[in-house]
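Predict structure. Input: Lipoprotein, putative, 155 residues.
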Amino acid sequence: MKATIVTLMIAALALAGCQDKPKTEAPTNQQAAGALPAGHPPVGGMPPAQDGKAAMPGGAEKGDPHAGLKPTAIPQGVPTKSGKVLEVLDGGQYIYMQVQHDDGKKIWVAALPMKVAKGDKVKYADAPALPNFPSKTLKRTFDALVLTQAVEVVK
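Output follows.
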């Protein structure tokens, strides 16, 4: 008797599990796009380029992820430091400036390429210095280097 009840229960559960249930799927890009605000980039990554590879802005597909980026103005409220440029090195994707602050402290600052010359006074968005920063392009390691995108030449 117990075996019959157990068999009936297993059969009932098996039949209940085989019923056709609605399938839930993630929305496709077309479905999700209708819910996005106007001007929002497409969901699901960048559209493929004509050659079938991912389309990257500004020439990044050629190996330069910084292509097309430009130095920006220093946003309001961001801590800054300033000083005199002692040396400028062209590292291709970056320029490296040795800056001497008013208190005499020297620091290397790396920024996107811009016009700056030895003797110019610059102001930059401050950030923690990265210790022992290697530059493959310059074949050199900087003891400490501040990476920033916001640098201004002060007149």
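Strands lie at 80-90, 95-101, 106-111, 121-125, 130-135, 140-147, 151-154.
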